[in-house]
Structure to design on (830 residues):
């Protein structure tokens, strides 16, 4: 097993050097890293092929294999991602407020790096340069632990990024990859409070639960999305159909996809038969409560478990309600705090939905699929927080910073 | 043992009712609670006397007994605290940003309550109405677990606050006190993720460590302050003396008091003899490294342990350095991320200190004692965060809120 204390100490030293880098130096290094990835594409693809072969041999699903796969285009995408981060404004150093107190003390709050960020994620090698880029831009050292199924890919990517850093005279240790796949190492990482300022898990519900349960380092929970669309009595049903089809089928394996439809009983009959037909073109399985089932050709009965399930698949649960209040109660009971939408023409219900639904992102008359750093104008995202502390919803560069109070005095003492 | 699931469910229900209260209703209730405390002062003092008697019998220190004691003046102070919170602006509902995206989606971020806040604290009954007031004002239900040595006092205070809430037609369950002193109950509270949005420990280093180590609920660490004052080569020594005496002696048992002095070797001889004399009037024990010891009459040799100790007492450690860099390295090694000060006339060193010291509050030429919600203009504080996530430094009302994204659409779907 590797010595995580040593990993922590290295990150500690590296972050001090990084903290002194100007925005220009950081951007130059990000572009050098992007160039390195493109230059090393053949090596990375070769190493990725080893992971792919092992994955196939152990029977990984097509979806997981697709997430694992790297090719020229995807590596170019990773490089472009780093260049985009280089082009974003640097939040570090911004003084978010400053004022003079009655005693003359000038008290300000300045944005600074968190320090050392830990990331635990699954076999998605694209997360490696993504996470590095965002953490680096915000002056944080990063310790990555990617899924063991992507180990060869990650090692090749990190080697390439290191060469970019070295070219710019920056310490490799701002980016460390834990290559030890021992579970005990992951647990130790979750308890590395002395060095880690935050731990961000990215992946499925199981991974996130494990990190929340075992980590003593502060965690930002990301990602699980059991997202609902509620079709109100007053909804424009053509708009509703359009939004539901988009939110369910535009991309099914993502956390902001719609998993559950909540329908006011007054519009069941007008909405469901036509919607069912359109969704059947995408082979969406509809799991319905008894009243909805009557209008869904080929539907299957829903169980209690369905209401709480994030399918990440061509499946949609359908729940009937008799009132707006019942819809809100149902959604607040089963939602995971991610993204929730109402389709309505009622001003009052629109405003009440925004007010009463407890989630990171609450929509009126739009697809839940917009919950995304780019779509919200953050430029890039490190994940979508479903917790309430520190950051909620899509997390951009700012979520990787903290502030410190800076106080300019002239000899003040407290009375 | 009590059923914490039931406690959680009650808080869940109560927070929904509280969320619908206007600022006016909340302020009215806070004032009613303040009136109730003053009306019930005799009862509270009688119950407090029981705690005091038990405390004396078990040999509690004078300092702890003083923190436990309630009298008319202190109860009036608690009531005034609630009235001051009522007078503060309500952060809830503020839209902190809102803009229109290129596709016409209007994306805003609105300040909302965290939900349910847990507090674990020691035998300081004044924390009970303080924590309640700040959480209530920000629309949060609160679950309190105060030190068992203050149980009778806390029960009486909560009873009184409940009568204020009831008078205003608000549910008592927005304020719940865990009266079960079983340690297992505390551990369960730390794992009540289903209901608690955050847990804030307030107290000594031991309590905070226990909560950080055992909690799966997100924690905000507060309070431990091993605060340094560095006297630079260029310092105005009269100013330095004045600030050091204030930061060490104005109030010794608090987290923003100075615990350690770091002195540039060039000013050892000019600073220490005179400072020692003045501090001796307060019977401050000086624990010095070898070089400082030569100039400190009655000083005792410091050990390695002293550099890392928050004394909360009339003790000051004194460390000699030969350069600014050495001072920064020493402070960044031993500080607890609370409050650190430099006394200097050097522009460059002042700016570098603000930049390079890693702490919640970094001062130039002022006493560390100013780290406080009121002094910083926040109006009130629930504690001082020494962690980097969510809130850092004095936490006012805003620290008890989160944001949610509200999105106004007109049928947008994602391409």
């Amino acid at each position: 097993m590797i010595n995580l204390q040593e990993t922590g100490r290295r990150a500690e030293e590296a972050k001090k050097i990084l903290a002194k880098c100007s925005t220009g130096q950081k951007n130059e290094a990000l572009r050098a890293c992007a160039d390195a990835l493109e230059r090393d594409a053949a090596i990375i693809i070769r190493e990725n092929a080893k992971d792919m072969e092992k994955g196939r041999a152990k029977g990984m699903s097509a979806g997981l294999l697709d997430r694992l796969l790297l090719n020229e285009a995807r590596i170019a995408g990773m490089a472009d991602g780093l260049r985009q981060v280089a082009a974003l404004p640097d939040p570090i150093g911004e003084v978010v407020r400053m004022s003079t107190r009655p005693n003359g003390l000038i008290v300000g709050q300045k944005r600074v790096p968190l320090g050392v960020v830990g990331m635990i994620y699954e076999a998605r090698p694209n997360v490696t340069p993504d996470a590095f880029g965002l953490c680096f831009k915000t002056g944080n050292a990063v310790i990555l632990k990617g899924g063991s199924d992507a180990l060869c890919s990650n090692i090749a990517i990190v080697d390439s990024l290191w060469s970019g850093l070295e070219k710019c005279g920056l310490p490799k240790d701002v980016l460390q990859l834990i290559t030890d796949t021992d579970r005990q190492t992951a647990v130790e990482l979750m308890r590395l409070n002395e060095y880690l300022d935050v731990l961000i898990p990215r992946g499925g519900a199981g991974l996130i639960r494990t990190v929340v349960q075992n980590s003593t380092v502060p965690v930002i929970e990301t990602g699980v999305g059991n997202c609902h669309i509620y079709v109100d009595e007053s909804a424009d049903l053509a708009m509703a159909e359009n939004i539901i089809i988009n939110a369910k089928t535009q991309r099914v394996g993502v956390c902001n996809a719609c998993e559950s439809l909540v329908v006011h009983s007054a519009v069941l009959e007008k909405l469901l038969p036509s919607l069912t037909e359109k969704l059947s073109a995408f082979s969406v399985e509809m799991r319905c409560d008894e009243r909805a089932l009557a209008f869904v050709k080929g539907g299957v009965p829903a169980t209690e478990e369905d209401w709480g399930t994030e399918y990440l698949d061509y499946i949609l649960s359908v729940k009937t309600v008799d009132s707006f209040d019942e819809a809100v109660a149902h959604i607040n009971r089963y939602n995971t705090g991610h993204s929730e939408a109402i389709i309505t023409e009622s001003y009052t219900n629109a405003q009440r939905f925004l007010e009463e639904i407890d989630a990171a992102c609450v929509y009126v008359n739009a697809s839940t699929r917009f919950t995304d750093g780019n779509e919200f104008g953050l430029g890039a995202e490190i994940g979508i927080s479903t917790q309430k502390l520190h950051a909620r919803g899509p997390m951009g560069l700012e979520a990787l910073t903290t502030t410190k109070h800076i106080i300019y005095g002239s000899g003040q003492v407290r009375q």
Residues 23-39 of chain A form the longest helix (17 residues).
